[in-house]
Specification:
Strand content: 15-25%
Distance between the termini: 71 Å
Helix content: 40-55%
CATH superfamily of the largest domain: Spore Coat Polysaccharide Biosynthesis Protein SpsA, Chain A
CATH class of the largest domain: Alpha Beta
CATH architecture of the largest domain: Alpha-Beta Complex
Oligomer: single chain
Number of strands: 11
Number of domains: 2
């Protein structure tokens, strides 16, 4: 019989006291839980410690990719499950993960998981938000890339295997909070692209914005998600507008500075 692989659940967090208890309850069966905090001012740390979580702190914010790398550095498990405080592992997903842990180790295999995303009271079934597969379960020798936002696992030559079961994602519970987070993501994305030498013209701002609306509502059948589908198409277009406008504005400020 193969020896069961040890699982480390790894998280990064800041001021997640309201969401953390349910998240931790959904993964309490793991061999260890690692939480890297980036300066919480609420009782996130107290809640985590009371639940037996191994808590670490880092006041420096290098971006999402490098922060996940640092968090994983503290893990000792054979397999890593990377989750966020607004996510919950369902019983069906737990069973699938347990099966992987009980099976012989596959050092060049990573596992993607379907997320059920909540948007304004509805778990979306279309709009590009389901199954929304993400690579979250993987052997410990794989790591996230360095991107500041929209970071992803550097899989190299790994085989990707889909797991049954869903990861619940409470994406948008409060609209104002969601909008502020989207704006922060858009600004970080623009700065990241700008540092890579990317530029865009005013036409790109409007073409990408229009394209995002059409893709979400029509091509990805967002209209089948009812009122939330229409609202999500508009929010996606707004997010795209913010990204490309921020990149365009950075380009303009540089050109004016060179005059």
């Amino acid at each position: 019989m193969p020896v069961r692989q040890r699982l480390s659940v790894v998280m990064i967090a800041k001021n997640e006291a309201g969401l953390l208890p349910d998240c931790l309850a959904s993964v309490r069966w793991a061999d260890e839980i690692i939480l890297l905090d980036s300066g919480s001012s609420d009782n996130t740390l107290d809640i985590a410690r009371q639940c037996g979580v191994n808590v670490y702190q880092s006041s420096h914010w290098p971006g999402y990719g490098k922060q996940r790398q640092l968090a994983q550095h503290y893990a000792s498990g054979d397999m890593i499950l990377m989750i966020d405080a607004d996510e919950r592992v369902t019983p069906a997903l737990r069973a699938a993960i347990e099966q992987v842990l009980e099976s012989p180790a596959q050092p060049h295999t990573v596992y993607n998981i379907s997320r059920r995303n909540l948007f304004l009271g509805r778990y979306m079934r279309h709009s590009g938000w389901y199954p929304d597969r993400v690579l979250r379960l993987y052997p410990c020798h794989y790591h996230y890339n360095d991107l500041q936002v929209h970071e992803s696992l550097d899989t190299r030559d790994a085989q990707v295997v889909p797991l049954p079961g869903d990861l619940q994602h409470l994406t948008c519970r409060d609209f104002s909070t969601f909008q502020r987070k989207q704006l922060a993501y858009a600004e970080a994305w623009a700065h990241q692209r700008y540092q890579l030498g990317k530029r865009c013209g005013i036409f790109s701002v409007f073409s990408h914005t229009t394209g995002a609306f059409i893709k979400t509502l029509i091509l990805r059948a967002g209209f089948l998600d009812g009122k939330q589908g229409w609202l999500l198409a508009m929010v996606t277009a707004q997010y795209t507008f913010n990204k490309y406008t921020a990149l365009w504005a950075l380009s303009q400020s540089t050109s004016k500075g060179s005059l």
